[in-house]
Design a protein that fits this description.
- The chain has a domain of 78 residues.
- Helix content is 35%, strand content 21%.
- It is built from three helices and five strands.
- Strands 1-5-4-3-2 form a five-stranded antiparallel β-sheet.
- The relative contact order is 0.12.
């Protein structure tokens, strides 16, 4: 007789394919939710903060290219430590992007907000 496999979540006997690990979708989801709980919270929180940064940049930059003072971004609780990509120009200017919304730090506490087309 073959070895009987049991569900990793509930321990019930598994029927069907020989490589199945769970008795059904409910157990598979429950098991994976437990295993990934910590990392999912980190990812969810980071995505929420990125989404907030994106909304701030979008609201302040309605024309596609705008100049704002740093205090404006600070007043909206913009998080300068979170961005999705960095682009450095040939002249050495560093643009930080949150998806397609970017910003460049200028002199005198000003920021240039741009939208990548």
């Amino acid at each position: 007789m073959k070895d009987q496999k049991t569900c990793l979540e509930c321990g019930e006997r598994i029927q069907g394919r020989s490589d199945k690990k769970f008795c059904g979708d409910y157990c598979r989801n429950a098991y994976n939710n437990k295993v990934n709980a910590d990392s999912k919270n980190l990812i969810r929180n980071t995505n929420n903060r990125l989404r907030k940064n994106y909304r701030i940049l979008s609201e302040l930059n309605r024309t596609g290219k705008t100049k704002v003072v740093k205090s404006t971004l600070n007043n909206h609780n913009f998080d300068f430590s979170l961005f999705t990509s960095v682009y450095t120009t040939k002249t050495g200017n560093v643009y930080y992007y949150v998806y397609d919304q970017g910003y460049l730090e200028l002199d005198n506490d000003f920021f240039l907000l741009i939208k990548r087309e």
